[in-house]
Specification:
Blueprint lengths: L2 H5 L6 H37 L3 H6 L3 H13 L1 H27 L9 H14 L2 H7 L3 H28 L6 H25 L28 H24 L2 H7 L1 H9 L15 H35 L4 H29 L1 H25 L9 H26 L7 H28 L8 H16 L24
Helix pairs in contact: 2-5, 2-8, 2-9, 2-10, 2-13, 5-8, 5-17, 6-8, 6-10, 7-8, 8-17, 9-10, 9-14, 9-16, 13-17, 13-18, 14-15, 14-16, 15-16, 15-18
Length: 495
């Protein structure tokens, strides 16, 4: 590293970072569609399989039949939670494995790219078969296709996420992660908008009978397969396009060579609690810091994934509202998240990653607490979502974006470039462990008669509160040596 390079301000290559973000675009596009639809597919399939009377009740338009349908759907959330958790068990095992393997991979197209391309291709082919098999009431087929999608999504998810810190100096990773997450949330928002275009509210959810004014329990239109097939097909096509764009525009090996000096400087200006040396065991200070981050991450994902897994069912069966309300909530959360991703790195450069993340957890806790209080004090009206819940979802999206934009950089800050895939695996192992446990835990609680859908905000509030307490003990290390380019110069060159 030359003296001139060492003294030059660090700059973030905005164009390259956005192109890397296409991988995350595909990831969140896939998971938004998957999480929005699969729990509801399974709920319907299990209700018909375990309760023969369900289909007849579903066709009736009486308050008694509607109530019975709702009770049956609530009872099957336990097996739904188990099935959603089994998918995550595979992820819990495979993410660290693929991360470590990709660290040691060397090919002409890079160490991450082979996994990104193969995983994306298989997922894109298998994904549209999930709604087809649901359409034909094939429970086993739906579960098998879900398993294939999860398996190959894990093949490319870790390498795709690790690609950003591979070629971004440590002090710039929060800002880069913000850009990556914005790209991802554009993918998630696009999936939601596609759902609206296909008029999902007329296919799934509740509707009002014009003659009686009563709410129907469901309005599944089995003859109209394209109403749910559309989002899955669009997601598959865009996943393939995103992978091709990434492959064509980002030459992994070439970029790694170009940024070698900046990466070396980033190692010297790390925010780790102790210096990092791959030839020595991980220092006690860094190990403690890593454990606290991962435990806190586990609990905030317990809350976040627990809510997202059952949100569509909460809206449809708990509030008897249209699934369009779920999409509006998701869009508002996405808007709040994009704002948070845009400013999260900037805030972190001023006050440090710890306190930025801590503030995001605090906002999230406050939003869930308000949701809980208003649910029990005011109550949720049947057939519509109150305006205050939309506001809460926006704030929650902003708060959690401050968490996500800084948490991953804090984990990979604790390793050198030789182990980024491995530490990315640690990060996702923690989140996937939470996503494995939380559907079962929350589904089991919903199975208990004394609990109903109003318990969701209570559960989320408790999990985030634990996360906030644990994260408080993470050591705050803020680098004061790094000089960043400012204004337009901070965006870096386009080549």
């Amino acid at each position: 590293m030359t003296a001139q390079t060492q003294s030059a301000p660090l700059k973030l290559n905005m164009k390259r970072t956005m192109l890397i973000g296409f991988a995350f675009f595909g990831i969140l596009l896939l998971w938004q569609v998957y999480d929005s639809w699969c729990p509801t597919f399974l709920s319907e399939l299990f209700a018909k399989a375990f309760y023969p009377e369900y289909e007849a009740l579903r066709q009736q338009n009486t308050l008694e039949a509607i109530a019975k349908c709702g009770d049956i759907i609530q009872k099957v959330q336990y097996p739904v939670g188990i099935m959603m958790a089994i998918d995550n068990v595979a992820a819990l095992i495979l993410l660290p494995i693929f991360g470590k393997i990709s660290d040691k991979t060397h090919t002409r197209i890079g160490k991450r790219m082979p996994y990104i391309l193969v995983g994306t291709f298989v997922c894109s082919v298998a994904f549209p078969f999930i709604p087809v098999l649901f359409h034909y009431n094939n429970v086993a087929g739906v579960i098998i296709m879900m398993a294939i999608v999860v398996l190959f999504a894990m093949m490319y998810r870790n390498p795709a996420v690790a690609l950003m810190p591979d070629i971004t100096p440590k002090p710039l990773r929060s800002k880069a992660n913000g850009i990556i997450n914005i790209m991802g949330y554009i993918g998630g928002a696009f999936a939601t908008l596609v759902g609206l275009v296909f008029v999902l509210s007329n296919y799934l959810g509740t509707a009002v009978d014009k003659d009686t004014g009563l709410y129907k329990a469901h309005t599944w239109a089995y003859h109209n397969i394209w109403a749910v097939e559309g989002p899955f097909l669009v997601a598959s096509v865009l996943m393939l396009v995103s992978a091709v764009v990434l492959f064509i525009t980002v030459k992994e090996n070439k970029v790694e060579e170009e940024v070698k000096d900046e990466m070396a400087r980033g190692e010297l200006e790390s925010e780790a609690a102790a210096p990092i040396d791959d030839d020595k065991p991980m220092s006690k200070a860094n190990k403690v810091m890593l454990i606290f981050i991962l435990v806190a991450e586990f609990f905030w994902f317990m809350a976040d994934n627990g809510i997202s897994t059952f949100l569509n069912n909460y809206v449809i069966y708990g509030t008897q509202s249209s699934s369009t309300s779920t999409m509006i909530l998701t869009i508002l959360m996405g808007v709040g998240s994009v704002i948070g991703f845009a400013v999260g790195g900037i805030i972190a450069s001023k006050i440090g990653r710890k306190w930025t993340l801590f503030g995001g957890l605090g906002l999230t806790l406050a939003s869930y607490a308000v949701w809980t209080i208003l649910t029990f004090a005011v109550g949720l009206p049947k057939g519509s979502i109150p305006v205050w819940l939309f506001v809460i979802w926006f704030i929650k999206g902003f708060g959690m974006s401050l968490v996500h934009v800084n948490s991953f950089p804090m984990v990979v800050e604790l390793c050198s470039t030789k182990k980024i895939g491995q530490f990315t695996g640690y990060y996702y192992a923690s989140s996937m462990a939470a996503q494995t446990i939380t559907p079962i835990a929350l589904g089991s609680l919903l199975y208990i008669p004394s609990f109903d859908w109003d318990f969701l905000p209570v559960y989320a509030t408790a999990c985030v509160a634990i996360s906030l307490v644990v994260f408080f003990f993470v050591k705050n290390v803020k680098s004061t040596k790094t000089e960043f380019k400012k204004g337009l110069e901070a965006l870096g060159d386009d080549d």
